[in-house]
């Protein structure tokens, strides 16, 4: 596996891959890799001949009081994991290579960015859209893979890619990969490593409460009452607070106060022991 840390080396390496192989896949990450990321890498292989993974802890998507400094960085261990998966190219720029002095551009996706995590983390999706737009322009992948764990992020990126003609105009250029979970149902996340063993045990209550709510909704229970009961269950299990718990249209994330004919998604963000966890599931 080749590692590029400058744009010049990246462009040469991508050109080399393109000479040898037809299709290139991109898997953007912030590192601290786990089985969720490796599942994206394996899925990427099914869609392309060469796989490029980026590792970049993107300062622009962190708020002023968020965990940018604490975010786990383990490039050597990540490199070994990616080598083991047969990844062709790792793109691991420093902040100065991604945002050289004078950088002054912002990509902002209206609508789908505005609720849920967008409301709880002002500026977050502008940071995500800006860096993913840059990554797409840097690598020019035929296909890019993102996890459904970050459902709203996936929706924002799909909107941006369509609006800015960033990817090939086929429907599956942005592939969403199903959330990989621990045995107790907790979604794998780099931030799970912030949890104490006790908080980690309690955190399994989040997906359990969500599943119970979905069963109730499908049985015809009132949406408002079900969400309130679910929030209470999450807090009773030891979470400090619930940032949001909402039903949304699965494609646009438009508000969906009650179940209708549209496909719905249940999306939750909750805090435990100083760590903010997110999850989402289809109401199906
Ligand atoms: N459990 C998971 N299942 C599937 N994909 C995942 C999972 N966790 C992360 N991903 C995906 O991996 C990509 C990189 O995510 P990122 O590096 O932010 O990891 P993360 O575990 O989501 O970290 P964080 O704790 O910052 O949310 C994203 O597309 C994300 O949706
Ligand atoms: C897509 C992404 C790599 C952009 O920094 C990040 O938000 C992530 O890891 O989900
Ligand atoms: N996986 C989403 C990236 C973030 O929370 O900043």
TrEMBL record:
<dbReference type="GO" id="GO:0015940">
    <property type="term" value="P:pantothenate biosynthetic process"/>
</dbReference>
<feature type="binding site">
    <location>
        <position position="180"/>
    </location>
    <ligand>
        <name>ATP</name>
    </ligand>
</feature>
<feature type="binding site">
    <location>
        <position position="61"/>
    </location>
    <ligand>
        <name>(R)-pantoate</name>
    </ligand>
</feature>
<feature type="binding site">
    <location>
        <begin position="30"/>
        <end position="37"/>
    </location>
    <ligand>
        <name>ATP</name>
    </ligand>
</feature>
<dbReference type="GO" id="GO:0004592">
    <property type="term" value="F:pantoate-beta-alanine ligase activity"/>
</dbReference>
<feature type="binding site">
    <location>
        <position position="153"/>
    </location>
    <ligand>
        <name>(R)-pantoate</name>
    </ligand>
</feature>
<dbReference type="InterPro" id="IPR004821">
    <property type="entry name" value="Cyt_trans-like"/>
</dbReference>
<feature type="active site" description="Proton donor">
    <location>
        <position position="37"/>
    </location>
</feature>
<comment type="subunit">
    <text>Homodimer.</text>
</comment>
<keyword id="KW-0436">Ligase</keyword>
<feature type="binding site">
    <location>
        <position position="61"/>
    </location>
    <ligand>
        <name>beta-alanine</name>
    </ligand>
</feature>
<dbReference type="InterPro" id="IPR042176">
    <property type="entry name" value="Pantoate_ligase_C"/>
</dbReference>
<keyword id="KW-0963">Cytoplasm</keyword>
<dbReference type="GO" id="GO:0005524">
    <property type="term" value="F:ATP binding"/>
</dbReference>
<comment type="similarity">
    <text>Belongs to the pantothenate synthetase family.</text>
</comment>
<feature type="binding site">
    <location>
        <begin position="188"/>
        <end position="191"/>
    </location>
    <ligand>
        <name>ATP</name>
    </ligand>
</feature>
<dbReference type="Pfam" id="PF02569">
    <property type="entry name" value="Pantoate_ligase"/>
</dbReference>
<feature type="binding site">
    <location>
        <begin position="147"/>
        <end position="150"/>
    </location>
    <ligand>
        <name>ATP</name>
    </ligand>
</feature>
<protein>
    <recommendedName>
        <fullName>Pantothenate synthetase</fullName>
        <ecNumber>6.3.2.1</ecNumber>
    </recommendedName>
</protein>
<comment type="pathway">
    <text>Cofactor biosynthesis; (R)-pantothenate biosynthesis; (R)-pantothenate from (R)-pantoate and beta-alanine: step 1/1.</text>
</comment>
<comment type="function">
    <text>Catalyzes the condensation of pantoate with beta-alanine in an ATP-dependent reaction via a pantoyl-adenylate intermediate.</text>
</comment>
<keyword id="KW-0067">ATP-binding</keyword>
<dbReference type="InterPro" id="IPR003721">
    <property type="entry name" value="Pantoate_ligase"/>
</dbReference>
<keyword id="KW-0547">Nucleotide-binding</keyword>
<keyword id="KW-0566">Pantothenate biosynthesis</keyword>
<dbReference type="GO" id="GO:0005829">
    <property type="term" value="C:cytosol"/>
</dbReference>
<dbReference type="InterPro" id="IPR014729">
    <property type="entry name" value="Rossmann-like_a/b/a_fold"/>
</dbReference>
């Amino acid at each position: 596996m080749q590692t590029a840390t400058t744009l010049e080396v990246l462009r040469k390496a991508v050109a080399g891959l393109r000479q040898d192989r037809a299709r290139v896949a991109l898997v953007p990450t912030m590192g601290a890799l786990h089985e969720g990321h490796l599942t994206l890498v394996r899925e990427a292989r099914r869609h392309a001949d060469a796989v490029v993974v980026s590792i970049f802890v993107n300062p622009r998507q962190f708020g002023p009081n968020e965990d940018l400094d604490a975010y786990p960085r383990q490039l050597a261990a990540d490199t070994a994991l990616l080598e083991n998966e047969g990844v062709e190219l790792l793109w691991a720029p420093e902040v100065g290579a991604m945002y050289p002095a004078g950088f002054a551009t912002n990509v902002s996706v209206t609508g789908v960015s505005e609720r849920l995590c967008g409301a709880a983390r002002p500026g977050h999706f502008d940071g995500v859209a800006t860096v993913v737009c840059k990554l797409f322009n840097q690598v020019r992948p035929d296909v890019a893979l993102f996890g459904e764990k970050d459902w709203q992020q996936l929706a924002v990126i799909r909107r941006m890619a369509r609006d800015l003609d960033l990817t090939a105009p086929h429907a599956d250029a942005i592939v969403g990969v199903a959330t990989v979970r621990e045995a107790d149902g907790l979604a794998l996340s780099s931030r799970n490593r912030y949890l104490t063993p006790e908080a980690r045990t309690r955190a399994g209550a989040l997906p359990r409460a969500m599943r119970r709510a979905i069963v109730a909704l499908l049985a015809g229970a009132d949406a408002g009452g079900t969400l309130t009961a679910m929030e209470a269950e999450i807090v009773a299990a030891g979470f400090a607070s619930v940032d949001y718990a909402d039903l949304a249209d699965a494609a646009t994330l438009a508000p969906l106060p009650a179940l209708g004919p549209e496909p719905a998604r249940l999306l939750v963000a909750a805090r435990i022991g100083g760590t903010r966890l997110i999850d989402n599931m289809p109401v199906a």
